[in-house]
Amino acid sequence: PAKEAPGAGPAGPAPRVPVSHRQASSVSSSHALEALREGAGAARYTAEKAAIVSIGLTVHSTPVSLREKVAVPEAEWAQAISELVECPHVEEAAILSTCNRMEVYVQAVSWQRGSREVIQWMAKYGGVSEEELIPYLFVLRDRDAVNHLLRVSSGLESLVLGEGQILAQTKAVYQAGQDIPGFGRNLNGLFKQAVTCGKRARAECRLSEGAVSVSSAAVELMQMKLDAPLAEARIAIVGAGTMSRLLVKHAESKGVTKMTLLNRTMPRAEALAADFPDVSFDIQLMPEMLRVVGESDIVFVASGSAELLLTEENCAGLPAASAAVAGGGGYVGISVPRN
């Protein structure tokens, strides 16, 4: 028999290699990846991070003919939010729709997919194609979306710098959202901070000085066009909402003590008139609109109607402005949709 080499012992078992150092087969790797995806740790490695996204149209870049189609009245915010959160990648939603902007804020589990779903919803709601909509849209994500809302609520993105109405509208979104399930915790906190920011901006930066709303700017414009004091013109206001209230306030500050107020319902018009005891109002309902317009020198239209009220056809036969304003009267429309 062969002799063993001197000093050589009997052959022992092969050395053990730690599991972490062993070469994994393709089969075991696939099983491990599948287990990771199905297990509790999947979200850490495979899920997309949720994002706050703002998508919308503004007065600075979008014609009113498109903005008015996608505008969402406050009465329809709840339904719109309900439809948005039914999208696969949208968890929370909010609507900020005013005369100057239509913006949708969402928390999306995937910002690309969520953005696509919001754009599709906006096109469907407005009855327009995505091709018509996309060139005018802005899309902002996370920090940029948050900063944009803070600028909006502060009046820095408004047509009239520092105007106060947008702060009230932002607050209205926050308040309405308390009763809407799709207005979730993250957007609730965002809009609450936006309201706080808007208040601080006006208090600390003196943004509320001068003509600080579209309504006040409209009154200033008509005063500039007239050769006579605004108080000498026969003024009519169509609508009795917030913008009409601001019109009355600024007209009164110019010395106007008489005006005609047209509205669809009497109680709301009477409530507005009651807030201005020093102004004499002639309150009329909408069936009298053309008669009142024909008897007025200046007509401000701030109605919430979704249809045109004053057209070229129905105003063609109306008389010209009175001699008191030297023919300098006219119509000023500040509604969206246009009336």
Give a brief outline of the structure.
The protein starts with 25 loop residues before the first helix and ends in a 6-residue tail after the last strand. The chain is built from 14 helices and nine strands. With 339 residues, it is of the alpha/beta class.
Provide structural commentary.
The protein has a five-stranded parallel β-sheet with strand order 7-6-5-8-9. The longest helix is centred in the middle third of the chain and has 21 residues, at 185-205. Helix 11 (242-253) links the parallel strand 5 (235-238) and strand 6. The protein folds into two domains: 51-205, Beta Polymerase, domain 2 (2-Layer Sandwich), CATH 3.30.460.30; 214-333, Rossmann fold (3-Layer(aba) Sandwich). Helix 3 crosses helix 5 (111-126), helix 7 (143-153) crosses helix 9 and helix 10 (214-225) packs across helix 11 (242-253). With 339 residues, it is of the alpha/beta class. Helix content is 42%, strand content 15%.
Return the string of H and E elements: HHEHHEEHHEHHHHEHEHEHEHE
Low-confidence stretches: none
End-to-end separation: 114 Å
CATH topology name of the largest domain: Beta Polymerase, domain 2
The largest beta-sheet arranges its strands as 7-6-5-8-9
Number of helices: 14
Which shape, going by the Cα principal axes? elongated
Estimate nothing, just give the exact number of structural domains.
2
How much of the sequence lies in strands comes to 15-25%
As a whole number of angstroms, the C-alpha radius of gyration is 31 Å
CATH class descriptor name of the largest domain = Alpha Beta
Major sheet: size, sense and barrel closure?
A: 5 strands, parallel
Report the mean per-residue pLDDT as an integer: 83
CATH superfamily placement of the largest domain: Glutamyl-tRNA reductase, N-terminal domain
Structural class per helix/strand content? alpha/beta
Under the CATH scheme, the architecture of the largest domain is 2-Layer Sandwich
Biased composition (Low complexity): 20-31
Organism: Prasinoderma singulare
Protein name: Glutamyl-tRNA reductase
GO biological process, one term: porphyrin-containing compound biosynthetic process
